[in-house]
Amino acid sequence: MSDGGSISWSPHGQIAFVDRGIHVIRSSGRGAKRLTWGHQDQDPVFSPNGHEIAFTRDLDTDRHDAGIYVISSDGTGLHRVIRGY
Question: What is the pTM of this model?
């Protein structure tokens, strides 16, 4: 977790964390998966059912893509829900 971002626990024992993108891993330490790449993504928070993760994206060079995003915990379905912030 080198980027200093927060972590979030899902109700199913997964952990979302930041390390040059959003990652998930099981609490056992297995099943690590990177969900986002090459962006300034921070502050992951699992949905109450643990199926989605919301996070902030703040791009220094391109404010057009900054905002709050949601992605499924399996890495699919990335979409912005709020532009800017």
Answer: 0.85
